[in-house]
Amino acid sequence: MDSFSTLIRTASHEQHVEAETSTFMSDLLGGRLGVDAYARYTEQLWFVYEALETSAERLAADPVAGPFIRPELMRLASLERDLEHLRGTGWRASLSALPATRAYADRVRECAERWPGGYVAHHYTRYLGDLSGGQIIRDKAERTWGFAKKGDGVRFYVFEEISNPAAFKRMYRELLDAVPADDLEKQRIVAECKGAFALNTGVFRALGEEFPLSA
Ligand code: HEM
Fold first, then answer.
1. Which residue puts its alpha carbon closest to atom 33 of ligand 1?
2. What region does 201 belong to: left with phi over 0, alpha with psi -120 to 50, or beta?
3. Residue 41: how many CA atoms within 13 Å on its side-chain side?
4. pTM of the entire structure?
5. Secondary element (H or E) of residue 204
6. In angstroms, how far apart are the furthest CA atoms of the chain?
7. ∠125-14-188 over CA atoms, to 5°?
């Protein structure tokens, strides 16, 4: 039987393609959107990571979610620096979540409070993605909008404390394989992961509506 890390990756492959090829992501990576769209997207990420990370401390001792809680992954402080750069010092006052983002953050919070396995699904979907495709987004953002390499504006994508992302991802997959859950619970976690991708796609859809290409 496949390992859990393989199972979750293959089971979510289709959803990954869908998220990756969403109109908003394609336009963003194609350099067809202004920095305003990038800033709006970064704002949405703030709500998601706020939900993921404010619960982290409480989950640190949990047998299922605990091993995944690692200070080197935490993104909220970096997101806040990026937002200050993108929106100015008053960034917090103008911050607002799209309804799709609110639904996403609410679901993360719900899992964090009631279902550690579900929290792992959300954790995997975001952090392993950030360590992978996130690097492509960073590179594109630096070139398109002129951010300093790994500097303000793209700090969210820079894991200062992870010197070897490939090794980190290997270790992360070992953590997934060691999750103390039976087969049924693993299936539930996989289903939640697909749901997490769908929530991301929902945010992209909403952003696509807010930033349609004029030409
Ligand atoms: C245009 C946007 C994206 C690109 C170019 C991209 C690209 C990639 C690439 C190249 C990998 C493989 C890395 C490897 O095997 O080590 C990967 C993995 C991953 N991506 Fe994405 N991705 C994008 C968007 C997303 C989104 C929106 C999510 C979810 C929120 C996501 C979640 C993941 C996850 C969870 C993995 C790890 C799969 C695994 O090995 O288990 N990605 N991505």
1. 129
2. alpha
3. 25
4. 0.96
5. helix 183-210
6. 52
7. 55
Chain segment 110-122, per-residue pLDDT in tens: 999 999 999 999 9
- Quote the DSSP letter at residue 66: G
Tokens of 175: 């953590």
E strand or H helix that includes residue 212: none
Nearest CA to ligand 1 atom 39: 9
Q: Which of 132, 190, 194 maximizes ligand 1 atoms within 8 Å of its Cβ, making it the mutation to test the pocket?
A: 132
pLDDT digits (tens, 9 = 90+) for 126-144: 999 999 999 999 999 999 9
Residue that the structure tokens 């010092």 belong to: 89
Question: Is the torsion defined by CA of 119, 196, 32, 30 positive or negative?
Answer: positive
Look up residue 8 and give its two tokens: 């979750």
